[in-house]
Design brief:
The protein is mainly alpha-helical. It has one domain. 65% of the residues lie in helices and 0% in strands. It has 4 helices and no strands. α1 packs across α3 and α2 crosses α3. The longest helix has 19 residues. The protein is globular. The N and C termini lie far apart (49 Å).
Length: 80
């Protein structure tokens, strides 16, 4: 068993939770499906560039990047 499976599952769950909690489409945000392998690669590169950052920060950064900051706008919006 690959030891990265647990971390990959955690990342996918975190991204799905951020998406559901904010009502922001993540996996099809740009009109085409974002593949799991693309997410894992993006996070690998992010972690290499930001070795002291945590997974949550990287996930939020990816959410914003993939949704053209729609995630940020939704979670920052003032309640009506």
């Amino acid at each position: 068993m690959n030891s990265s499976n647990v971390y990959e599952a955690y990342l996918l769950g975190l991204l799905n939770g951020l998406s559901l909690g904010s009502g922001t489409e993540f996996w099809f945000a740009k009109g085409v499906e974002l593949k799991r392998e693309q997410v894992f690669y993006w996070m690998d590169v992010y972690c290499q560039a930001h070795p002291l950052a945590d997974v949550f920060t990287g996930s939020v950064t990816l959410m914003n990047e993939n949704t053209n900051n729609e995630y940020y706008r939704r979670v920052s919006a003032q309640p009506e």
